Amino acid sequence: MEETVFQTYLKSDTLFKKNRDILRPSYIPENLPHRDYQIDQLASILATALRGDRPSNVLIFGKTGTGKTAVVKFLGNEIKKSTGDMENIQYIYINCEVVDTQYGILANIGNRFIKDWEEHIPFTGWPTEKVYNRLKEKMDLEPRVTVIILDEIDKLVYKSGDDVLYHLSKINDDLKQAKVSIIGISNDLKFTEFLDPRIKSRLGEEKMVFPPYNAQQLRDILMQRAELAFREGVVEPSVIAICAALAAQEHGDARRALELLRVAGELAERNKEKMVTETYVYKAKNKIELDCVAEVIRTLPTQSKLLLFGMILNQESGTEKLNTGDVYSTYKELCKKIDVSVLTQRRITDLLSELDMLGIIHARVISKGRYGRTREIQLSVPIVEARKVLEEDEIIKELYGHKIKIQATLDFTQRT
DNA sequence: TGTCCACTGGAAGGGAGGGCTT
DNA sequence: AAGCCCTCCCTTCCAGTGGACA
Predict the structure, then answer these.
(1) What does the pLDDT look like over A29-76, one tens digit per residue?
(2) Could you identify the residue whose CA is nearest to the C1' atom of nucleotide C17?
(3) Percentage helix, strand, coil, to 5, in chain A?
(4) Distance, angstroms, CA A150 to C1' B13?
(5) Chain A 346-365 contacts with nucleic strand B (CB below 7 A)
């Protein structure tokens, strides 16, 4: 084989076994530690389906990374195992963050019942009522039980209201032989307040709450996955404990814990280490946090990027604390330089609040007496990294090397 | 004690854009 | 294709305000 730049990487002993997806959230292991109770509970509800009856609708609550999706998918696999190829139970999983419109959900479900050679429901174009009717008609061809899982159901409700849920939850009245039950998964306990009371009671026939994992439980989970994902003996025992402890601090998020472990492993491997050590966990923590910030900045609208860029320039020229007026005049200057329309100060106030909520800046309202009331603004992300990300943007690039003319007014009323 | 700065942040409404309906 | 409705961004207008200063 020809020697390529990749050779050194391919040759070196890797820390991972073949399949490193085992540490990704999408992987569903053979058994789920510390979720026996929830599995039993949900299984007892779903068992009805195996007898050909309609299981109760279920609402599942729990914070991110508490195993909700994993348990539901796990039971999906179990059902498939016990029914074999007989398709008298349909298990349909929909993530409402991806499919988030009434039309999308109905079309998605409908198409599962339409054979490949038949006419599919198009992405768009049909009246929603027609999609619903087609779905009903196809579904009702056989006396089967359909379990529809709506993951992140709260996102759906916030975005498109509860019309779909209304239709889906009363679909059984319109079906002659088929039966439908719905499992809604949410990490927001309060989202049901936004539902019509009738829908609320129909959906919540059964309720389940997934508690967060504690550090010990997280350790067990990580241990199980680490054994599958890493070669023997390459992970220092304390690494698992630290990943678990860090994630336990953040409301017991198993997803976070696994991510830490995976990134730590990847960083160690990239450095051609023989072991994953504690240092790499902390490096992983930093990398994840930084990546997260970078992603937020990258997806900011142009106007907010300009605003942020202006604040960075100000800070680079030595002004620690800015007020709204300073930020606005720098922003205006930048806009004019590259010929972008200038938004009003009122609008900028709102954009600043957004940046504050995203944790990119820290802003608080202060009064300087005689000299008015304003926000005192500080960046709360590392300048160098933020700047690097901003300069990826085509529009910001044009400002490369720009020096600000209007320096923030030095605040002489400020006390130490 | 009152004044007045430099804003804040609410309210209302315009207009573009997207999706549904006719 | 046209009309309708909804949402998102944004503007305009403006009353309200904490506290340094005269």
Answers:
(1) 888 989 999 999 999 999 988 888 899 999 999 988 899 999 999 999
(2) A373
(3) 55, 10, 35
(4) 37
(5) 346, 349, 352-353, 365
| Domain shared by A115 and A199, yes or no | yes
Distances (CA, A) of A187 to A61, A137, A155, A405: 5, 33, 10, 48
Strand C close to A347 by CB, under 7 A: yes
Final residue of a structural domain among A267, A296, A325: A296
For residues A378 and A389, membership in a common domain is answered with: yes
Q: How far is the CA of A130 from the C1' of B16 (A)?
A: 29
- What's phi and psi for A403, nearest 5 deg? -105, 135
* Domain termination residue (choose one: A210, A243, A267): A210
Taking a C-beta distance cutoff of 8 angstroms, is the pair A260, A285 a contact? yes
The nucleotide minimizing the C1' distance to residue A344's CA is: C11
- Do residues A95 and A203 both lie within one domain? yes
Domain span at residue A310 reads 300-415
Asked whether residue A275 is domain-assigned, the answer is yes
> Does the C-beta of A375 come within 7 A of strand B?
yes
pLDDT in tens, A111-150: 888 776 666 777 776 777 777 888 888 888 888 899 999 9
Distance of A126 CA from C3 C1′ (whole Å): 17
A390 and A261 fall within a common domain = no
CB of A231 within 7 Å of some strand C atom: no
Classified as helix, coil or strand, A206 is strand
Smallest CA–C1' distance to C16, residue: A373
Please state the domain count of chain A.
3
For residue A370, give the CATH number of its domain.
1.10.10.10
A230 in Cβ contact with A222 (< 8 Å): no
Q: Which residues in 147-166 of chain A line strand C, with CB less than 7 A from it?
A: 161
Q: Which nucleotide is nearest to A124 (CA to C1')?
A: B19
How confident is the model at residue A10, as a pLDDT? 55
CA of A123: nucleotide with nearest C1': B19
Are A269 and A16 contacting, i.e. CB atoms less than 8 angstroms apart? yes
> Terminal CA-to-CA distance of chain A, rounded, Å?
68
Query: Does residue A199 sit in the same domain as residue A254?
Result: no
